[in-house]
Protein backbone atom coordinates (compact mmCIF):
# COMPACT_ATOMS: atom_id res chain seq x y z
CA UNK A 1 0.00 0.00 0.00
CA UNK A 2 1.24 3.45 -0.87
CA UNK A 3 -0.39 6.83 -0.26
CA UNK A 4 -0.84 8.87 -3.44
CA UNK A 5 -2.99 11.76 -2.23
CA UNK A 6 -4.20 13.69 0.80
CA UNK A 7 -7.64 15.16 0.11
CA UNK A 8 -9.38 18.25 1.46
CA UNK A 9 -12.55 16.25 2.15
CA UNK A 10 -13.97 12.73 1.73
CA UNK A 11 -15.74 13.56 -1.54
CA UNK A 12 -12.49 14.64 -3.18
CA UNK A 13 -10.81 11.44 -1.99
CA UNK A 14 -13.60 9.23 -3.36
CA UNK A 15 -13.60 11.02 -6.73
CA UNK A 16 -9.89 10.25 -7.10
CA UNK A 17 -10.40 6.64 -5.96
CA UNK A 18 -13.08 6.26 -8.61
CA UNK A 19 -10.79 7.66 -11.31
CA UNK A 20 -8.00 5.32 -10.24
CA UNK A 21 -10.29 2.29 -10.27
CA UNK A 22 -11.64 3.30 -13.69
CA UNK A 23 -8.01 3.16 -14.88
CA UNK A 24 -7.66 -0.36 -13.46
CA UNK A 25 -5.75 0.64 -10.31
CA UNK A 26 -6.89 -0.86 -7.02
CA UNK A 27 -7.26 1.96 -4.49
CA UNK A 28 -8.86 2.72 -1.16
CA UNK A 29 -9.76 5.79 0.85
CA UNK A 30 -8.61 6.04 4.45
CA UNK A 31 -9.25 8.54 7.21
CA UNK A 32 -12.79 9.59 6.36
CA UNK A 33 -13.95 8.74 9.88
CA UNK A 34 -11.69 11.51 11.25
CA UNK A 35 -13.31 14.13 9.03
CA UNK A 36 -16.36 14.32 11.28
CA UNK A 37 -14.29 15.41 14.28
CA UNK A 38 -12.61 18.37 12.61
CA UNK A 39 -12.49 21.18 15.08
CA UNK A 40 -11.96 18.66 17.86
CA UNK A 41 -8.69 17.39 16.39
CA UNK A 42 -5.97 19.31 14.58
CA UNK A 43 -6.21 19.30 10.78
CA UNK A 44 -3.04 17.69 9.45
CA UNK A 45 -2.08 15.34 6.63
CA UNK A 46 -2.46 12.56 9.19
CA UNK A 47 -6.10 13.40 9.99
CA UNK A 48 -7.28 14.28 6.47
CA UNK A 49 -8.83 11.70 4.11
CA UNK A 50 -6.20 10.04 1.94
CA UNK A 51 -6.10 7.77 -1.11
CA UNK A 52 -3.87 4.73 -1.21
CA UNK A 53 -3.00 2.36 -4.06
CA UNK A 54 -2.52 -1.36 -3.42
CA UNK A 55 0.34 -2.04 -5.84
CA UNK A 56 3.54 0.01 -6.01
CA UNK A 57 3.90 -0.70 -9.73
CA UNK A 58 0.80 1.49 -10.33
CA UNK A 59 2.53 4.55 -8.81
CA UNK A 60 3.44 6.38 -12.06
CA UNK A 61 0.00 6.02 -13.63
CA UNK A 62 -1.67 6.95 -10.33
CA UNK A 63 0.41 10.11 -9.99
CA UNK A 64 -0.41 11.09 -13.59
CA UNK A 65 -4.12 10.83 -12.68
CA UNK A 66 -3.58 12.87 -9.50
CA UNK A 67 -1.86 15.65 -11.47
CA UNK A 68 -4.60 15.57 -14.12
CA UNK A 69 -7.39 15.88 -11.54
CA UNK A 70 -5.57 18.65 -9.66
CA UNK A 71 -5.15 20.63 -12.88
CA UNK A 72 -8.90 20.63 -13.58
CA UNK A 73 -10.96 23.24 -11.80
CA UNK A 74 -13.53 21.63 -9.52
CA UNK A 75 -16.28 23.78 -10.99
CA UNK A 76 -16.53 26.64 -13.40
CA UNK A 77 -17.71 30.08 -12.39
CA UNK A 78 -21.32 30.28 -11.25
CA UNK A 79 -23.36 32.46 -13.59
CA UNK A 80 -26.02 34.61 -11.99
CA UNK A 81 -28.69 37.15 -12.83
CA UNK A 82 -29.92 40.02 -10.68
CA UNK A 83 -33.57 40.16 -9.68
CA UNK A 84 -35.19 43.38 -10.91
CA UNK A 85 -37.70 43.34 -8.06
CA UNK A 86 -35.43 42.95 -5.01
CA UNK A 87 -31.87 43.16 -6.36
CA UNK A 88 -30.85 39.68 -5.13
CA UNK A 89 -28.41 37.57 -7.16
CA UNK A 90 -29.86 34.25 -8.38
CA UNK A 91 -28.07 31.34 -10.06
CA UNK A 92 -28.57 31.27 -13.83
CA UNK A 93 -30.48 27.96 -13.96
CA UNK A 94 -33.40 29.40 -11.94
CA UNK A 95 -36.26 31.31 -13.56
CA UNK A 96 -37.55 32.83 -10.33
CA UNK A 97 -35.86 34.75 -7.54
CA UNK A 98 -35.29 32.63 -4.44
CA UNK A 99 -35.73 35.72 -2.24
CA UNK A 100 -38.95 37.30 -3.48
CA UNK A 101 -40.35 34.85 -6.05
CA UNK A 102 -40.31 37.37 -8.92
CA UNK A 103 -39.96 35.95 -12.42
CA UNK A 104 -36.65 36.40 -14.22
CA UNK A 105 -38.43 38.04 -17.15
CA UNK A 106 -40.01 40.72 -14.92
Briefly say what this structure is.
β4 and β5 form a beta hairpin. This protein has helices at residues 10-22, 32-35, 59-71; strands spanning 2-6, 27-30, 50-53, 80-82, 89-91.
Q: Can you put this structure into words, describing what you see?
A:
This protein has 106 residues and is α+β, with helices and mostly antiparallel strands. It has helices at residues 10-22, 32-35, 59-71; strands spanning 2-6, 27-30, 50-53, 80-82, 89-91. Strands 1-3-2 form a 3-stranded antiparallel sheet, covered by helices on one side. Strand 4 (80-82) and strand 5 (89-91) form a beta hairpin. The radius of gyration is 20 Å and the shape is elongated. The model has no long low-confidence stretch (mean pLDDT 86).
| Helical content (DSSP H or I, runs of 4+) | 25-40%
Pick out the low-confidence regions. Answer: none
Beta-strand portion reads 15-25%
Spatial strand order of the main sheet = 1-3-2
Q: Would you list the SSEs in sequence order as H and E?
A: EHEHEHEE
Radius of gyration, whole Å: 20 Å
Number of strand elements: 5
Number of helices: 3
Shape: elongated
Would you tell me the structural class of the helices and strands? alpha+beta
Distance between the termini: 59 Å
Mean pLDDT: 86
Largest sheet: 3 strands, antiparallel
Main features:
alpha+beta, two-stranded antiparallel ribbon, 3 helices, 18% strand
